[in-house]
Amino acid sequence: MTSSSFFPPQRTLMGPGPSDVPARVLAALSRPTIGHLDPLFVSLMDDIKSLLQYAFQSDNALTLPVSAPGSAGMEACFVNLLSPGDTVIVCSNGVFGGRMIENVKRCGANAVVVEDEWGKPVSVDKVAAAFERHPEANLLAFVHAETSTGVYSDVAALCALAKQHNALSIVDTVTSLGGMELRVDAWGADALYSGTQKCLSCVPGISPVTFSPAAVERIKQRKHPVQSWFLDMQLVMGYWGGESKRAYHHTAPVNALYALHESLLMLKEEGLEAAWARHQLNHQALVAGLEAMGLEMAVDAAHRLPQLNSVRIPEGVDDAAVRSALLNEFDLEIGAGLGALAGKTWRIGLMGHSSSARHVLICLAALESVLHDQGAKIRTGLAQAAAKAIYAKG
């Protein structure tokens, strides 16, 4: 076998991530590589930090992009804020809450698990009861936008509970950053991590994180060494947080950070609240089209993510065959259900650059065609008109 250059097809990405990357961001990747300690790159780092603070709606000094995907951002939050023997209340209502539990265990801490049904938001009342039963808990961890189910939870209420009990909070915002309302400082969240490949529409591989002053103080006061050298924020701060001279820590992914900077610039130019509104409008149009077709959403309207739509698979429809046909016939990617929802739901992403009227209409037409060809009991010829009616209302 002779190796050759790889030229991927032009897909329309409407799964749970990555989302479509705009040409402007891809072009930024191709700019000349310079050193990660070059004074010009250091200036770019400062601008990236400022733009991330805008995206998070936070003045946190310790705000930076971890040079690894969102899972590393998650681990960075846990290993820096937890020590062996700590008690953590962890909310599990999907796959990614489960991953939080694994992080707690690997830090040698004790996980008090608050479970909610997949597709339902985290119960504030259950968390309050867990704090009453475990007054020693010094941290609360939960997912804002659960990518595996398409449901969001109340960050402000949950963070307020943590503060009432003198605990810090860790919040997974991998799917929410840039796509729905998120106000870190106003809501009192302490440590948050995200990813670049979802609503920021950047290439995968970087994890924005932000830590409150209270979280930074806990990091500085910890007596047990952080179990990860690479993710130790006391070391990383010397590179990303230095006021004048930057201390070498690792070789940053220079070109990927060019791309992140460009995607954050695009978010700033659009305006954060305008981006949130765009995601919501396209979500409403997609839902209208799907329901006109006869499909059902898997999450109650009050708690649905606008950027990640969970759809029930109709009875008798072959999940894998539909997704395969969409990919092979229309170059369209949608996501399968995970865990308890595998084979029961599809996950349709409307994230970042993939959140547009064009994407909604393409998805509805392609899905209707494939389902009709496979003999599914759907209503045809109505979906796009229903979506367009939503757009007409604005």
UniProtKB/TrEMBL annotation:
Binding site for substrate: 347
Gene3D superfamilies to which the protein is assigned, alphabetical: Aspartate Aminotransferase, domain 1 (3.90.1150.10), Type I PLP-dependent aspartate aminotransferase-like (Major domain) (3.40.640.10)
Keyword 4Fe-4S carried by entry: no
Cofactor(s) required for function per UniProt: pyridoxal 5'-phosphate
GO biological process: glycine biosynthetic process, by transamination of glyoxylate
Keyword set, alphabetical order: Aminotransferase, Pyridoxal phosphate, Transferase
Domain called Aminotransferase class V: residue spans: 39-337
InterPro entries: Aminotrans_V_dom (IPR000192), PyrdxlP-dep_Trfase (IPR015424), PyrdxlP-dep_Trfase_major (IPR015421), PyrdxlP-dep_Trfase_small (IPR015422), SP_NH2Trfase/AEP_transaminase (IPR024169)
Residues recorded with modification N6-(pyridoxal phosphate)lysine: 198
The keyword Transferase is annotated on this UniProt entry: yes
Organism superkingdom: Bacteria
Coiled coil: none
Assigned protein family: Belongs to the class-V pyridoxal-phosphate-dependent aminotransferase family.
Name of the protein in question: Alanine--glyoxylate aminotransferase family protein
Organism name: Sediminihaliea albiluteola
